[in-house]
């Protein structure tokens, strides 16, 4: 069997007064004909990235609506995850070729996961498969009664042909696909039913829930941040696409003008990202000897609450990606009122429209220029963050993402009706929706 992730319980009613009321009200109606249906989300890891953070909040809310939902993880050896990282990069346009050995490793692991899936998944009405690591499951599985959805979170607009030509034939088994942006849809996608909607943050998660000022400062002092000094922060995986070394160089340009300026580079090291260890070592080497640069990971106890504190207290947050799916850390920081300097790529511009939330940059020089300007003009920085918070509230909080999911499930159920057990009378509203 695939490993199941324990996610606990969440109530949609708790979002009242945080997310827009009209979004919460709509969820009641959209879930009406789905209550009692069974759904499964499958991905590669339960920690260390945006997908896992989304599922940890989204899956309990499915259940609160009366849609019985599980979150399960594929298995794989180290060689498998090295191959899937190359596929991940290749689908984003990285050079290279997928060797016959790579294909064999990927498919052998996928076949084992498909066998595990068959043993415990016969009754699922909907199966979401996230990203490239488990992407071939639908084709290898015999569970054709389920409605299969491939949720691709990365930018596949210009995939390396070596990787795309291998993966694309397996995608014909999917009933629908979901991408973050229209621009991310790859050429000649063999899935006809395609949907586009961006991910969201959970304002009530430990990473985004408001923290008392004293606790914020105590948490950061504990990990070496001096809260009386200015601070800029980048949060994200140690990934060359996120350009952590470019952030270091931009910071070094600003440092002579702000001598006590601190830089925090914060990332999680995850099982499905072996390349992250190499990037982490490179960053450590590039920053060695500078006591004002803090390289922090989950391995030294820096988790969601510490990230929350860093994003809340930083003068500026940076997300200088050179390739990006969405960049949840942008909305996370802006939700806390902190302005963001973001790379003009992927879903970052969607989160930072002109004059709202921060500024977009294309180069290290532009990043340094805007960093210095926002540090010197705190009132401008404050206004950017303030306008950005309302933009996030309207567009990028978890109830909006749940709405998009329910619209898709309703469409798939209309095309191929659910079994009778998949329907609960409309009067049976889950307890968590009382008052919503």
Automatic annotation (TrEMBL):
Family matches, as Pfam families: Glycos_transf_1 (PF00534), TreT_GT1 (PF21269)
Domain of life of the native organism: Bacteria
Residue span, Glycosyl transferase family domain: 224-390
Domain Trehalose synthase N-terminal as annotated: residue spans: 41-185
Keywords: Carbohydrate metabolism, Glucose metabolism, Glycosyltransferase, Transferase
Membrane-crossing residue ranges in chain numbering: none
SUPFAM superfamilies according to UniProt: UDP-Glycosyltransferase/glycogen phosphorylase
This protein's record includes keyword ATP-binding: no
Assembly description: Homodimer.
Protein family (similarity comment): Belongs to the glycosyltransferase group 1 family. Glycosyltransferase 4 subfamily.
Name of this protein: Glycosyltransferase
Native species: Pyxidicoccus parkwayensis
Species lineage: Bacteria, Pseudomonadati, Myxococcota, Myxococcia, Myxococcales
